[in-house]
């Protein structure tokens, strides 16, 4: 299976560099390019790529707003957006998460890391390292306490083990960490996460973490 990629960056040289690196992966095809946020949205709707590599600072519609439009389009429900950043600052991280991005890459990513990132996101996984997950957790932990937003109702679709796995995901643990803590295999941990994502109707692991905090499964003192 070939993974289709749309490159969205206002710098021609940057796009050319990423295009050259991606094409070295036999399972990856660059199907289109965009130099503005509006063009990225239009092109994504036409080409329906598996992955969009989206720069944040785009002319006109910025990368965050363009991501929000792509994620909200039912016709692009299988399209995943990875945000390209020069610096992985909290401001960009949380804005992109709220917009529905599936992960982040810095423009200094090495060639193998770039290709593997595209494969990970295309497979439906979140490109979010444990360190970034913990930053999400920290941001939510420092919010003023708020009543759960219907969490009891939404989370009842999960089994007891799935709830426990989601709780551990929300504390920033990797699949391997969860497996060690629950004495299960990493594959089993991943299966529980995949099922929870499907049952709760969220896009990926990132949104799963946010939902867990919003719905009171975990909190600042957890």
Can you describe what's shown?
With 222 residues, this protein is α/β, with parallel strands linked by helices. It has eleven helices and five strands; from the N terminus they run E-H-E-H-E-H-E-H-E-H-H-H-H-H-H-H. It has two domains: 3-127, 3-Layer(aba) Sandwich (Rossmann fold), CATH 3.40.50.2300; 147-214, Arc Repressor Mutant, subunit A. A five-stranded parallel sheet has the order 2-1-3-4-5, with helices on both faces.
How would you sum up this structure in a few lines?
By secondary structure, the protein is of the alpha/beta class. It is built from eleven helices and five strands, in the order βαβαβαβαβααααααα.
| CATH architecture label name of the largest domain | 3-Layer(aba) Sandwich
Low-confidence stretches: 145-151
How many helical stretches? 11
Cα-atom Rg, whole angstroms? 18 Å
Mean pLDDT, as a whole number?
84
What's the shape? globular
Could you name the CATH homologous superfamily of the largest domain? Response regulator
List the secondary-structure elements in sequence, H or E. EHEHEHEHEHHHHHHH
Q: Kindly report how far apart the N and C termini lie.
A: 42 Å
Number of strands: 5
Question: What fraction strand?
Answer: 5-15%
* Side-by-side strand order of the widest sheet: 2-1-3-4-5
Look at the helices and sheets and give the structural class: alpha/beta
Report the CATH topology name of the largest domain. Rossmann fold
* Percent range of helical residues: 40-55%
Work out the count of structural domains. 2
**Biggest sheet details:** 5 strands, parallel
CATH class of the largest domain: Alpha Beta
């Amino acid at each position: 299976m070939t993974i289709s990629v749309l490159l969205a960056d206002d710098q021609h040289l940057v796009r050319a560099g990423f295009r050259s690196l991606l094409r070295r992966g036999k399972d990856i095809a660059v199907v289109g390019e965009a130099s503005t946020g509006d063009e990225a949205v239009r092109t994504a709707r036409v080409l329906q790529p598996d992955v969009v590599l989206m720069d944040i600072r785009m002319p006109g519609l910025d990368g965050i707003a363009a991501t929000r439009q792509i994620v909200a389009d039912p016709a692009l429900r299988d399209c995943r957006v990875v945000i390209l950043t020069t610096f992985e600052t909290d401001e960009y991280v949380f804005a992109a998460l709220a917009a529905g991005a599936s992960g982040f890459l810095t423009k200094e990513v090495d060639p193998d890391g770039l290709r593997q990132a595209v494969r990970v996101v295309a497979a439906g996984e979140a490109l979010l390292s444990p360190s970034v997950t913990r930053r999400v957790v920290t941001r939510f932990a420092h919010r003023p306490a708020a009543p759960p937003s219907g969490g009891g109702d939404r989370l009842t679709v999960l089994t007891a083990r799935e709830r426990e796995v989601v709780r551990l995901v929300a504390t920033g643990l990797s699949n391997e960490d969860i497996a060690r803590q629950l004495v299960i295999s990493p594959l089993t941990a991943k299966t529980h996460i995949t099922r929870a994502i499907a049952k709760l109707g969220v896009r990926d692991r990132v949104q799963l973490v946010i939902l867990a905090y919003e719905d009171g499964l975990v909190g600042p003192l957890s």
